[in-house]
UniProtKB/TrEMBL annotation:
Lineage, uppermost ranks: Bacteria, Bacillati, Actinomycetota, Actinomycetes, Kitasatosporales
Keywords: FAD, Flavoprotein, NAD
InterPro entries: Class-I_Pyr_Nuc-Dis_Oxidored (IPR050151), FAD/NAD-bd_sf (IPR036188), FAD/NAD-binding_dom (IPR023753), FAD/NAD-linked_Rdtase_dimer_sf (IPR016156), Pyr_nuc-diS_OxRdtase (IPR001100), Pyr_nucl-diS_OxRdtase_dimer (IPR004099)
Pfam family, one: Pyr_redox_dim
FAD/NAD(P)-binding domain sequence ranges: 13-329
The organism's place on the tree of life at top rank: Bacteria
Domain Pyridine nucleotide-disulphide oxidoreductase dimerisation: 367-472
Names of the cofactor(s): FAD
Protein family (similarity comment): Belongs to the class-I pyridine nucleotide-disulfide oxidoreductase family.
Protein name: NAD(P)/FAD-dependent oxidoreductase
Length: 492
């Protein structure tokens, strides 16, 4: 049923947003706050992938698994843990957080900001024009006076290997909406989705085999993937790196799946989940009508304006521009782009210099990300390798978390590691990585330090409370100071 405004004759808006996930909602909200009229188009559930098949359900499912693991790390609490998480309770919790896949609440939210919601498939017909095809085949044409914002997200990228169609593999969607625990689950892919799904389903009782072409979480510092792999192995998962799946076979619809690996060996599982990257959801939104390639990632400038399209009207936000496939980063882009759309509409000058109001500078310098594995892995900014490749002169500071008493009180035998990447010329942080129980809550302080380019001499005056896990900052900065003093003595 369409939820377009009652007056069907009104088809002209200041802004048309294609995609009503968190990114689309944020740009719509920002544009409405500036007094612009906004239409929002959604062909699936309002709230998007994040709300129903990704961030929200995966974290709702993972939290009970991690809570049990945390309890087992504390003497006196571990004795009370007598088994695995209750799967019925875990799935009921997930269902509650995804509102049983009912998007009426989020539809009301879109309306509450004063935007008009159109349900159906939105497709560009020509510059500044989007046609919405509803499920019943009827159409509504929307024109945009100032901007069309593409926020259609991404889809799982399945490899083209023999037997994959017949194998009916899980993707992140099946991995987060299933309410049945397979006895044996093969997870293909060692990135963020792969390691989180392996952690989740192993914790719920599946025997998990995790297959990765490279080390786990390859975009983080190497120690992050190493610690996560070690923990998964200790939890009885079979972690194999440096392997690829070359073929799949599932002769019986309800039978097991056989995976053939590149070394010629075979692996049998009851289900197989592919977490092998994402592809932009742009193949059928009419890009060809404005001179772009259907199915492509969209290249954007610092305000998220699509390049190679004349007229300063087409924006691409979130996953589709490939800058950082993270919900929070897409929302940041949406807020920034929404302000830029409003400024252009009003004829105001843009503040698009680095760190300006209309510049998505953090996309290049301060992207935070957390993987809710056991232990958690959290990072912001550049790794040491990335910083050196970018031409920075750096030094790194590494410490195990047991240097901080707060960590030892948080978990008996706390195991984790932290690294700071320091620009030695400016003495600011370029990046930080933390791996350990609960470290996701440390990340925002690191993000502020990186985005704010806080001098280390000033940062050491930011005192961490005793006894908290955050005390690791004190020891990291002290270690950096000792290293610098030793370096000065050595060069004297």
């Amino acid at each position: 049923m369409s939820e377009s405004p009652e007056n069907q004759e009104v088809t002209a808006y200041d802004v048309v947003v294609v995609g009503a996930g968190p990114v689309g909602q944020n740009v719509a909200d920002r544009a409405r706050a500036a007094g612009l009229s906004v239409a929002v188009v959604e062909r699936e559930l309002v709230g998007g992938e994040c709300s129903y098949w990704a961030c929200v359900p995966s974290k709702a499912l993972l939290r009970p698994v991690i809570a049990v693991a945390d309890a087992r790390r504390v003497d006196g609490a571990r004795q009370a843990v007598t088994g695995r998480p209750d799967t019925d309770g875990v799935f009921a919790r997930r269902n509650r957080y995804v509102t049983d896949w009912d998007d009426s609440g989020q539809a009301r939210l879109v309306k509450s900001i004063g935007a008009d919601l159109f349900r159906g498939h939105g497709r560009l017909d020509c510059p500044r024009q989007v046609t919405v095809t509803r499920d019943d085949g009827t159409r509504q044409t929307l024109t945009a006076r100032h901007a069309v914002a593409i926020a259609t997200g991404s889809r799982p990228n399945l490899p083209d290997i023999p037997g994959i169609k017949e194998a009916r593999p899980w993707t992140n969607r099946h991995g987060t909406d299933s309410s049945t625990v397979p006895a044996r689950l093969a997870v293909v892919g060692g990135g963020g989705v792969g390691v989180e799904m392996a952690t989740l389903w192993q914790g719920l009782g599946a025997q998990v085999t995790l297959l990765a072409r490279r080390r786990l979480i390859p975009r983080l510092e190497p120690f992050a993937g190493d610690l996560v792999a070690q923990s998964l192995s200790e939890a009885s998962a079979d972690v194999r790196t440096g392997v690829q799946v070359t073929a799949l076979s599932r002769p019986e619809r309800e039978g097991p799946v056989t995976l053939t690996l590149d070394d010629g060996s075979e692996l049998e599982a009851d289900e197989v989940l592919f977490a092998t990257g994402r592809t932009p959801a742009t193949s059928d939104i009419g890009l060809g009508t404005v001179g772009l390639t259907p199915g492509s990632w969209l290249d954007v400038d610092t305000t998220c304006l699509v390049k190679d399209v004349d007229g300063d009207w087409l924006y691409a936000l979130g996953d589709v521009n490939r800058r950082a496939l993270l919900t929070h980063q897409g929302k940041y882009q949406a807020r920034t782009a929404g302000d830029a759309i409003a400024a252009r509409a009003a004829g105001r000058l843009l503040d698009d210099a680095p760190w300006g109001d209309h510049a998505t500078t953090a996309d290049q310098h301060a992207v935070p990300q957390v993987f809710f594995t056991d232990p958690e892995a959290a990072a912001v900014g550049l790794t040491a390798e990335q910083a050196e490749h970018a031409g920075h002169r750096i030094t790194t500071v590494d410490l195990d978390f047991n240097a901080a008493q707060g960590a030892n009180l948080y978990a008996d035998g706390y195991r984790g590691h932290a690294r700071l990447v320091v620009d030695v010329d400016r003495e600011i942080l370029l990046g930080a990585t933390f791996v350990g129980p609960g470290v996701s809550e440390l990340l925002h302080s690191a993000t502020i330090a990186v985005a704010g380019e806080v001098p280390l001499k000033r940062l050491r005056h930011a005192i961490a409370c005793f006894p908290t896990v955050s005390e690791i900052w004190l020891f990291l900065l002290a270690a950096y100071q000792r290293n610098q003093e030793a370096s000065k003595i050595g060069s004297a």
